[in-house]
Design a protein that fits this description.
single chain, alpha+beta, Alpha-Beta Plaits, 13 strands, 43% helix, Galactokinase, kinase, Ribosomal_Su5_D2-typ_SF, transferase
């Protein structure tokens, strides 16, 4: 993403003025899927694609915002009744309102922003946008809000102004990202720890199936329900259990006859996935990327066969990775579409991408989109 482009558009729309420039990244999640609402761990990292905004205080009580990518301009006030109609502007408005609710003093400002996070590919473009403005406005208006609260401001914006009941992972990764590191986030306690991720000789690449990333909400809710049903059954013998994160396979086995085969299968995936995250952390501390890859394949198998949230296109891309000797591959995100994330040795990269494109197109009539990503820093001021 080019700072010069953002600067030139800002000057064009706001009388040649110059403001401050801030950026926040999108994210990947290496492993740990459907573990968040089960009290488990996720393992995200910030990427080298994100959102960038130029901002200047304008001395009024109005925000004047220009979306460079959409070529759309909106003005709005800072009171609750001033909420803009344009969905993209609601993210900025929501961040302003959430800061104000926390005692921050926000005044009117001019802003132009652009992004290079692919939309709908599961890399959290909306979290990148929220984090950019939360970080920037906190800095510019000296609100004194800590980074954790900035992530929560982004999450609350989704809940209260955009109608998305998301977890904290996306905003957390965007604000806390660190080049060369992934972050293990404990979704129960919100404790976190950085782990080294410097896969020399490997590339991280996402293959977008271009299947609509609709988290079929009814299917998602059904899976949450399965997990809660099993926890309730285990709790009868183990009152200390609150989430599947607290359960072992032995505990699950003991209630096998008290729950449906489907509920058992869903829970088996989650318990194994929480362990896989911990195994990957151990492997990264030893620089053992072969084990990391093996666990990624394990996650894909579990999501496809036990949690049943994959789809034909994603399974095809995973098989293609296996066939081409890719170290690790899995569906990334909630499932039902979106991308696979792949850890590929550099010498195998070209052949893998060529085969994936060609064979996928032969079967599905279109090519997958290819996104190379590098683990990068979180929210920051650029100029």
């Amino acid at each position: 993403m080019d700072i010069e482009v953002v600067r030139s558009r800002f000057q064009k729309h706001f009388n040649g003025e110059i403001g401050s420039v801030y950026a926040s990244p999108g994210r990947i999640n290496l492993i740990g899927e459907h573990t968040d609402y089960n009290g488990g761990f996720v393992f995200p990292g910030a990427i080298d694609k994100g959102m960038m905004a130029e901002i200047k205080i304008n001395g009024t009580d109005k925000v004047r915002a220009y979306s460079i990518d959409l070529k759309d301009y909106v003005e709005f006030g800072l009171n609750e009744e001033d909420a803009p109609h344009a969905s993209w502007a609601r993210y900025i408005f929501g961040v302003c309102r959430e800061i104000i609710k926390r005692g921050g003093k926000i005044q009117g400002f001019d802003t132009a922003f652009a992004g290079d996070v692919p939309l709908g590919a599961g890399m959290s473009s909306s979290a990148a946008l929220e984090s950019t403005y939360a970080f920037a406005l906190n800095d510019m208006f000296n609100c004194g809000i800590d980074k954790f609260e900035l992530a929560k401001i982004g999450q609350a914006t989704e809940h209260n102004y955009c109608g998305v009941n998301c977890g904290i992972m996306d905003q957390f990764a965007s604000v806390f990202g660190k080049a060369g590191s992934l972050i293990r986030l404990d979704c129960r306690s919100l404790e976190y720890k950085y782990y080294p991720f410097n896969p020399t000789g490997y590339k991280v690449v996402l293959l977008d199936s271009v299947v609509k990333h609709e988290l079929a909400s009814s299917a998602y809710n059904k899976r949450r329900q399965s997990c809660e049903t099993v926890v309730a059954a285990i709790k009868k013998n183990h009152p200390e259990v609150e989430f599947l994160r607290d359960c072992t396979m032995e505990m699950l086995e003991a209630v096998k006859n008290d729950v449906t085969a489907e509920d058992y299968m869903r829970s088996e995936y989650v318990i194994e996935e929480i362990q896989r995250v911990l195994d990957v952390c151990d492997a990264l501390e030893k620089g053992d990327y072969e084990t990391v890859g093996e666990k990624m394949y394990g996650t894909h198998h579990g999501m496809s066969k036990l949690y049943e949230v994959s789809c034909e296109e994603l399974d095809f891309l995973n098989d293609c990775a296996k066939k081409n000797g890719v170290t690790g591959s899995r569906v990334m995100g909630g499932g039902f579409g979106g991308c696979t994330i792949n850890l590929v040795k550099e010498e195998l990269y070209d052949a893998f991408i060529a085969d994936a494109k060609e064979s996928f197109k032969a079967k599905f009539g279109r090519s997958p989109k290819v996104y190379d990503v590098v683990i990068s820093d979180g929210s920051r001021k650029l100029a």
